[in-house]
Amino acid sequence: MADEQTDHRTYRVVLNDEEQYSIWDADRELPAGWRAEGTEGPRQDCLQRIEEIWTDLRPASLRRRMEQAGA
Question: In whole angstroms, what is the distance from residue 26 CA to residue 31 CA?
């Protein structure tokens, strides 16, 4: 908890092609396969944003397969 209080870095919310989310230091180049979601700020703000938008934790490919199987 002390680390979070002294962490003044800026983070960004990122996601991959499977619509899986993470946070990454905003001043670092994104790893291959990841793109910025658009949210930047303190770590806790980014984690809160992920909690708001990532409601289905299944990878996108699995969701699509399950939808096709149900159709």
Answer: 12
Cα 29 to its chain centre, rounded Å, is 15
14 Rama sector, left if φ>0, alpha if ψ -120 to 50, beta otherwise: beta
Nearest to 38 by CA among 54, 28, 26, 55: 26
* pLDDT tens digit sequence for 45-71: 999 999 999 998 888 888 888 888 887
- Name residue, tokens 């990122």: 14
As a whole number of angstroms, the distance between CA 63 and CA 57 comes to 10
Contacts of 10 (CB under 8 A, 6+ apart): 25, 26, 27, 40, 41, 42
pTM, two decimals, is 0.80
